[in-house]
Each structure stands twice: as structure tokens, then as C-alpha cells.
Amino acid sequence: MADLSISEARDSLAEIINRVIYQGERIILRRHGKKVAALVSANDLERLAALENRKPGRRPRRRGA
After folding, report:
1. Is 60 contained in some domain?
2. Are the beta carbons of 59 and 33 closer than 8 angstroms?
3. Contacts 24+ apart (CB under 8 A), 6-13
4. How far apart are CA 35 and CA 51, in angstroms?
5. Domain that holds residue 41
6. For the chain, how many structural domains are there in total?
7. What is each CA distance from 29 to 3, 5, 38, 55, in whole angstroms?
8. Which end of the chain is more exposed for a tag (fewer CB within 10 A), N or C?
9. pLDDT in tens, 16-54
10. What are the Cα distances from residue 60, in Å, to 27, 38, 45, 51?
11. Which of 13, 11, 29, 30 is nearest to 21 (CA)?
């Protein structure tokens, strides 16, 4: 899993998106050294949402929320 600052990601966003889409890479984004976001493929995001929705006692999350 790659780890980049937001400014590094901004400078090469197209390349990073291609790495996520075509190589399945997951990218952690940092601001001031702290993890603040991640770039994952749409398939990974859908799988994560499905796992969250399967947890007992949890209501399904709304799409886009």
C-alpha cells in the first residue's frame, strides 16, 4: 500500500488513479503526516460497503452518505 502526501498525489493524480484502477493498488493520503483519506478502486469500496452492511445490529448505510 502506497503512502503519499496530498500535494504529491495532486501532482500526479492521473497516474495514481491508473495505479488504483489497473493495478489494484490502495493509496493512503496524508496531510501534515497524518492519514486523512485513501484511494481504492470502486470494486474495493463496494466490497467494504457490503461488509459494513453485514455487521449484526447495524443498519445499512445510505449510498452517497
Report:
1. no
2. no
3. 6/30, 6/31, 6/36, 6/37, 9/39
4. 22
5. 2-54
6. 1
7. 6, 5, 6, 27
8. C
9. 999 999 999 999 999 999 999 999 999 999 999 999 888
10. 26, 22, 14, 10
11. 13
